[in-house]
Each structure stands twice: as C-alpha cells, then as structure tokens.
Amino acid sequence: MSFSKLTIRDVPVHDKVVLVRADYNVPLSDGKISDDLRVRASIPTLQYLRERGCVVVVMSHLGRPDGQANPEYSLAPVAEHLAELLGQPVKFVDTCYGDKVTQAVKVARPGDVVLLENVRFHTEEEANDSTFAGKIAKSSQARYFVQDGFGVVHRAHASTEAITHFLPSVSGLLLEREVTIIIDAMEAPERPLYAVMGGAKVSDKIKVIEAFVEKADKILIGGAMANTFLAYKGNDIGRSKAETDQQVTLDAIYAAARKKVGDEHVDEFLVLPVDVAVAATIDGKQPRRNQKVDSIGETDIAADIGDLSIERFTTELAKAKTVVWNGTMGLAEFPEFAHGSARVALTLATTPGMTSIVGGGDTADFALKWDGNEGDSFTHVSTGGGASLDLMAGKKLPGVEALLEGPK
Ligand code: ADP
Ligand code: 3PG
Ligand code: MG
User: Does ligand 2 come within 6 angstroms of the Cβ of 386?
Assistant: First the structure.
C-alpha cells in the first residue's frame, strides 16, 4: 500500500464539524468556471461527510491574488457551481475566519456545506502563518481537518501545513486516490511502463525525466522538449522552441539511460521523433508540413511531432500496460499541431487493459477537452499540476507529510 496516512474512513467524523481543504483553483472566464474537474473531483469526499451528518466547512485558494482581497479571485462562483453539483445550497462566507464564519457554522445543520472565501486574500496563507491557521481552525469550530486539495499539497502554506498543528488531520478520498495511483504507477506498475513526456521545457521536468529513466521501460519524447533533445543530438531545429543550456542535464540523462539499457539500446529506450510537423509561422492559418528531423529548414518551427513519429509513438504505446503521460506533443492549442497529442490520447483511451495516467496542468486540460467523456476514458486524469510532477519525481509533499500517519 503506497498511502500511509489516515483518511476520513479511519476517524469517527459522524455528526462533527469538519474543515476540508479543497483545491478550487479553477480557470474562470467571464465569471464562469471553464473547467470544473477540480470541483467535480472534490464531490466524493464532501458527500461522504454529508452522508455522515457532518457540517462541512470548505476552504481553498483561487489564483495568486498576492495577499489582497480581490473580487476577480473570489470563490463565490465556485460556491454556486458546487451547489449545482451537490444538488443543495452551499453557504458562501466572504471571509475565511472570524465572526461571520463562526455564525455560519453555528446555524448550519448536519449535511450542510459552507464555503469560505479565498485563503490567499491574506498574506499569512502563503507565509504558512500559524496564528492565521489557528484563527481559521477556531472560527470553523471543526473537530477534524481533511486535506483533499491534491493540487496544492506541494505547497507548505497555512491551509496545508500550519493548520495541521491545530486539528487532527487526515486525508480526503481524492488525495488518497491521487497519491495511490501515481505512486503505484511509479513504484509497482503493471509492465511495460511507458512514459510519454513533452511540453515546453526540459528544465521544468528534469527530476521527472530522471525518475522515468530509472523506473520506465521506455520514454517517448515529444513537444518542445523533443526539440531540445534533437538539438542536443546535433540536429538543426530552425526557429523551433528549445533550450540551448541543457547540455549538462542531457549528458546526465543519457549517461543514466546508457547505464540502464546499454549504449546500443539507448535510442530505443529514449525515443525521439523521427520527423516533426513544422510551419514558418504558428498563427492557426498555416498548414502543418512534415520534415524529417535531419532536414528541418532554417525558418521552420517544429510545433508537433510528425506523422511518421505519430505512427511510431502510438504503435509503441499500444504495447504498454501502464502509461504515464505528461506534457503535450506539440502546440496543441492549435488544432493543426494537436495531432500528436490527440493520437496519444486516443491510444491511451482505447487500448484494452491499459492503465493510463495523465498528469500536468496543460496535458490534463488537453485530455479533458479531447475527451467527450469528462476524462473517464483514461484511468486517471490528475487534478494536480506541480503536485503530480513532484510526486512523480519522488519528492515529498508537505501537505501530505503533515497528515496523521496510519498504523503500520
Ligand atoms: P504540463 O502543464 O502538462 O506539465 P507543459 O506546461 O510542460 O505541460 O507544456 C505545455 C506547453 O508546452 C503548452 O503551452 C504547449 O503549447 C507547449 N509546447 C508543446 N510543444 C511545443 C512546441 N513544439 N513548441 C512550442 N511550445 C510547445
Ligand atoms: C495549481 O493550480 O497548480 C495549484 O492550485 C497550486 O497553485 P499555485 O501554483 O498558485 O501554488
Ligand atoms: Mg503547464
């Protein structure tokens, strides 16, 4: 078992007031939630507590308001949406501690849900301030703290760390599921385990790449990350996005890969595109043009893996039993350069018996938009960006470490 912390199932929550930390840091456009994955993912824990007669007090952050109350970052729209999903009213309190909170909880009935305003309207939140955490705990009158905001547990903030010094603190069902699925995929996967890595930068994901060099049976590399690898291997990449200062990092990655699979197998283990889809400008109007990686033109911009690489990647992927996908295969915000990502998504969604885990903010966004099925076509779409990367890289997450340990 990869999850060692106590959860809400392990403590007598019945009829108690429970303070839940969720991650409702959701994208808003014109005051409406444009992607509600994080809100939907919080429902099982809230329902579990409601069914047991708890008064559920929920807190979260939204965006980075830098310690200032700012209506643009209010959680009020989330309260409305949460009420819709729960099928019952949610009481929104426009502050996260003090008399208003105390009163709202006092009049709440078993099963009621109270949502507090954005904890990041106070500088003390990100400072992991103990007095602030104490005020939240006290005004909520909670008997337990439940951490269920997986997306934010890589931060040691007042609502993820300091708060655990005031209340017995356990995990919610989402946090437990996220950590269990991701750790199991890294530590005890059904093999072969393949990693698909892409996205913008090698430097953002060095630790994750290193972890996969150690754990995975194959790593397929696309996106701008592949450009950096291709340039390192001596290919001319024209005007493509890449990092030119990653020589030392890539030396180390290749050294570890050679050590693991042997010199002659290294390119079958760390699989790079054989062609890329290029255009002279990326403006949504230029069609994609396939170019072999050794003949990318001076003015070309590689914005996706090429058609041959798509075939190769997806044929390889279909052999895997577990796939962890992190980073889009190209500039997937443009349909013309989303082919690689879409075909990876399709392979993960349709290969029978495959465990597929999608992590990373942009990758999860893409997978959800691609999927007509709210992400259910994959085994798991992580609600965490930075948190899922840190977990894959083997880092400890402060918001998880702070929770009560279960019996060994
Ligand atoms: P995640 O958020 O899933 O961890 P990243 O932030 O690392 O993923 O990568 C997603 C970003 O990478 C997207 O903004 C995408 O446009 C960009 N990207 C991917 N491939 C390319 C490319 N070939 N050229 C430029 N940008 C790219
Ligand atoms: C996220 O969206 O990654 C989490 O909600 C954490 O937000 P942060 O990067 O602003 O701390
Ligand atoms: Mg990103």
Answer: yes
pLDDT at 238 over 80: yes
Ligand 1 centroid vs 338 CA: distance in angstroms?
11
- The secondary structure of the chain in percent helix, strand, coil, rounded to multiples of 5, reads 40, 15, 40
Catalytic residue positions? 38, 201, 361, 386
Q: Give the strands of the sheet with 289-292, arranged side by side.
A: 289-292, 275-279, 301-305
Strand residue runs (E) in 152-260: 169-171, 193-197, 218-221
In ligand 2, which atom is closest to the CA atom of 157?
11
At 1 the pLDDT is 60
Q: Is residue 184 part of a domain?
A: no
Ligand closest in space to the Cα of 225: 1
- Ligand closest to 385 (CA) is 2
Question: Same domain for 234 and 319?
Answer: yes
Q: At which residue do the structure tokens 């043009």 appear?
A: 289
Tell whether 162 and 248 lie within a shared domain.
no
Residues 124 and 95 in one domain: yes
Return the best residue to mutate from 152, 154, 175 for the ligand 2 pocket (most ligand atoms within 8 A of CB).
152
Is residue 157 lining ligand 2, measured as CB closer than 6 Å? no
**One domain, residues 113 and 214:** no
Judge if 242 and 169 occupy the same domain. Answer: no
Radius of gyration of the chain (CA): 23
Whether residues 357 and 208 share a domain: the answer is: yes
Angle at 373 between CA 372 and CA 374, to 5 degrees: 105
What is the rounded average pLDDT for all residues in the chain?
Answer: 96
Give strand ranges (E) for 293-373: 301-305, 322-326, 355-359
Q: Which two tokens stand for residue 99?
A: 């008399």
pLDDT digits (tens, 9 = 90+) for 62-80: 999 999 999 999 999 999 9
- CB distance 394 to ligand 2 below 6 Å: no
Contact yes or no for 161/399 (Cβ under 8 A): yes
Asked if residue 366 belongs to a domain, the reply is yes
Q: Tell whether 197 is covered by a domain.
A: yes
Q: Pick from 136, 153, 176: which residue ends a domain?
A: 176
